[in-house]
Amino acid sequence: MFGKKGLVGIDVGHYFTKIVYFENKKGVIELISAFKERTPDGIVSAEGVDENIFSEFISTVFSENKIRNKNVAISLNSSTVISKTLSMPLVADEEMEQAIMWEAEQYAPFGMEHVNASYQLLERNEEKKEMTVLIAITKKDIIESYKRALKKAKLNLKIVDVDVFAVANAFFVNEPDKAKKHNLFVDVGHVSTKLVFTKNEIPVFSRYIDFGFSDMLDEASDVLEIKKEEIDLIFEPSYKDKEKKESFLNFINDKMVMLYTQIQNSITFYKANILDMEEDVENIVLVGCLGALTDRLNLEFAEELLKSKIITFNPFNFASKSGFSNESVVLEDSSFYTIASGLSLRGLDL
Hints:
Elements: E1 8-12, E2 16-25, E3 28-38, E4 44-45, E5 48-49, H1 51-64, E6 71-76, E7 81-89, H2 93-105, E8 115-125, E9 130-139, H3 140-152, E10 156-162, H4 163-174, H5 176-179, E11 182-188, E12 193-199, E13 202-209, H6 213-224, H7 228-234, H8 242-273, E14 283-287, H9 288-292, H10 299-306, E15 309-311, H11 327-330, H12 338-345
């Protein structure tokens, strides 16, 4: 699709920007780069990115990390995107775009001239004369801000994805045995939590929850009187204050009950309003901050409450890492790179 060089995935988070780059080397997928940089304040808003700050930032990041591939993929926060999975009558290929855009117009909150609408054909059933289509609609201004900023940085924007769909894409590549199952992906970021339900590798329903890890850490800092700069050290094996560490982890697990309850409500809504039949979600897949903390969370309680198996995965597992030496990225911190990995994978013919 984009040649052996593929795409560089750029996940612009409110706190960190994550970069992942896979390349096809003689039929072997190699992890070339994976790192994160602190996102400059004020770079992201509901209207897109600050073009000057972002272009200077991303240009410096590519230069300092010696990334020569100029073709990139970015993700939009799902809170800024309207996405729908639709079943439609099957139409001829030459009529497909017009038919899908007509459907998309029904969901656009503004006139079609003010939005960017795209689609992906997920399934084609010749026997039933039906097709399943994923549509995504967002403000045109958001896309244009990224285009202009990346052009200033002398980068080529090739793909715009949605964060939760990039997560699912990374999972399908790394866990093919689980890809066809009924899965719920939970991505807890610093500011918000995104959910997406998939079945047979098809996104069925997504939801945005106003629950971020940074607010929880701020509260922990105040309640437990732990300095914010000390919180990162708590997770290090060398941290000596066992009592403070235990208090912090107990606090986090107590707060997680609020998130589990919201996830439970989302599953209940999903079963009642989206599914055609009563069916359990087999796997709840944790990524982002939660994925990195699975060995410190009370998952037995969560599994009992949500009645699903809770798992995580490493988005780098499928790739060769022969030329990549940062073990902490591919082991302890891998969950933070799930979105960026899913974006880079869009550029490879897998």
